[in-house]
Amino acid sequence: MKERAIDNEIKLIPYYRNDEVSLPWYQDLDVCKQVDNRDEPYTLELLHCMYDFLSTHGDCFYIEYKGVLVGDVSLRDNAEVAIVICKEYQNRHIGRRCVPDMLTLAREKGMKTVKQMSIPLISKVR
């Protein structure tokens, strides 16, 4: 897996363990509610389990926006797409701008459709 350029501000970086950056995203209760409908923050163990699962059952990337890691996006082998943006960077259309590339990646993998996990934009591969 290699980096994927989205535009001049956003690129997707293949997942690597980076607890210092990613754990705070999943300790924000609003983000946990959006992502998993959880009322509790992720523990480090749960974070590792989640990322280990996503990275072994599909493609998982960090989203880099203007040089800062701000979230993650994954395309699972079962064609589910999930995008998570930390609260500080939400409402800037960062996730929305990643969707076309996830659809391209799905096509590259031979997927005919994709399913949404946490965003309402994805209905099918065009």
From TrEMBL:
InterPro entries: Acyl_CoA_acyltransferase, GNAT_dom
Residue ranges occupied by any N-acetyltransferase domain in the UniProt entry: 25-114
UniProt cross-references to SUPFAM superfamilies, sorted A to Z: Acyl-CoA N-acyltransferases (Nat) (SSF55729)
GO molecular function: acyltransferase activity, transferring groups other than amino-acyl groups
Pfam families associated with the record: Acetyltransf_1
Swiss-Prot/TrEMBL keywords: Transferase
Protein name: GNAT family acetyltransferase
Species, as recorded: human gut metagenome
